[in-house]
């Protein structure tokens, strides 16, 4: 069933015979449009997260013009809406604090304006889940245009990964292996074009998840931001959304339980970012799909890691693109995917993947030659994390995956920074570094503090990995034996709040266990002595955040935002 122009949502604004519609038409003349340019056509909102401060999205202002070209070509009426930008690099304490704000902005903007369908433009880490969460709750037809990865970094004939190599060379600098001149050259070489991080960090993981969910054009997620193909993909997305509006193919038809399971399998087989766990659980919640940590652990045991991409592997996103991109990659996983579900581009995923090929079997590995036999994440349980924790074990020193050591506890990140290099702390390579006060409320915003620095004296001895545990997240470009997302967090009295320096902690990834050795009586003494910290935000967005935020294991969405639909349509007359 195709919609007629009179059935478009925007018809209520433009097409009726009342004073308001007269005003809306007059104001559209004011914008310089003829009646025949918009009346009876699908209105397509282009939600653009471009900003002068966001280098990952600096090409999106221009790219929105290509989306408009596609919309016009297909007989729609495009309107660009600037929405807030979530810059992983610049926004403090972390853009995670504001993911739900962009999700709210997305949903309410689509609801309150005469919009029939949406093109969502983003890619820097949280912008992908934020846009999709809001759009899923509003449930209009939508296409996601991923910002695309930046070009590979270069320095002195070395290929650099943004993020990953930033950490690595900063450690080299701290160890005295490189000086100021080298550092200045690295500043020029780490990120050499517009686009999001080009490792399999959080950005690439989430845009790949969006493609696996079926909300992008096929192959969209790996196209380098500055490749001409990116502009063509943007134009094709603009043309496609017009057709989706006529078909009334809403996100709720695309974002099903099957689609989320496939997205989980995809991020695990990519060896993707641990952040995807939180975001996919939150996104699924907006679609009315209950996705849990256990789903991730279950799928992780059935899919191998097939993408040889940094930080876990060798290559970068441009290599992945030319090796076949996500279509070639998903073609290796057809036995675990739900192939009969629709995508924005094809009636079924099966048709979307028909003919997809791998052109470089070292970048996209065949099933017989995986990078790792198990998916990229493990979900841990134990008395330190009754509601779960995650570890990206494929990016850790294998010797640390079963380890018992004495805790060295830091109450917050600043205290850790101030004291971690103090030899008096007696930190050895066997110590377990514990950071608390870094969860959704404690951080606040669960900053990417989880890859705690190795103390200087150990770095100089050549130590490059240690067991670190926290209620924080970790950058998707980070690596190491870092246990993350401990729930419940210490700020609300989770067991992490009770650990003391010297306590023995056992990590056993094979057994999926994180355990604090403490007898019951002592546990109870410490629990009785624990005092909750005072609320942090007296007013404003922060006050709403602290009232509504959920813990990591349920996706850190706001309680009142879960689910989709149900909000009444605004009266437009
Ligand atoms: Fe934007 Fe990495 S900083 S994706
Ligand atoms: Mg990141």
From TrEMBL:
<dbReference type="InterPro" id="IPR000581">
    <property type="entry name" value="ILV_EDD_N"/>
</dbReference>
<dbReference type="InterPro" id="IPR042096">
    <property type="entry name" value="Dihydro-acid_dehy_C"/>
</dbReference>
<feature type="domain" description="Dihydroxy-acid/6-phosphogluconate dehydratase C-terminal">
    <location>
        <begin position="362"/>
        <end position="556"/>
    </location>
</feature>
<dbReference type="Pfam" id="PF00920">
    <property type="entry name" value="ILVD_EDD_N"/>
</dbReference>
<dbReference type="InterPro" id="IPR020558">
    <property type="entry name" value="DiOHA_6PGluconate_deHydtase_CS"/>
</dbReference>
<dbReference type="InterPro" id="IPR056740">
    <property type="entry name" value="ILV_EDD_C"/>
</dbReference>
<keyword id="KW-0001">2Fe-2S</keyword>
<keyword id="KW-0408">Iron</keyword>
<keyword id="KW-0411">Iron-sulfur</keyword>
<keyword id="KW-0100">Branched-chain amino acid biosynthesis</keyword>
<dbReference type="InterPro" id="IPR052352">
    <property type="entry name" value="Sugar_Degrad_Dehydratases"/>
</dbReference>
<dbReference type="InterPro" id="IPR037237">
    <property type="entry name" value="IlvD/EDD_N"/>
</dbReference>
<dbReference type="GO" id="GO:0004160">
    <property type="term" value="F:dihydroxy-acid dehydratase activity"/>
</dbReference>
<keyword id="KW-0456">Lyase</keyword>
<feature type="domain" description="Dihydroxy-acid/6-phosphogluconate dehydratase N-terminal">
    <location>
        <begin position="41"/>
        <end position="351"/>
    </location>
</feature>
<keyword id="KW-0479">Metal-binding</keyword>
<comment type="similarity">
    <text>Belongs to the IlvD/Edd family.</text>
</comment>
<dbReference type="Pfam" id="PF24877">
    <property type="entry name" value="ILV_EDD_C"/>
</dbReference>
<protein>
    <submittedName>
        <fullName>L-arabinonate dehydratase</fullName>
        <ecNumber>4.2.1.9</ecNumber>
    </submittedName>
</protein>
<keyword id="KW-0028">Amino-acid biosynthesis</keyword>
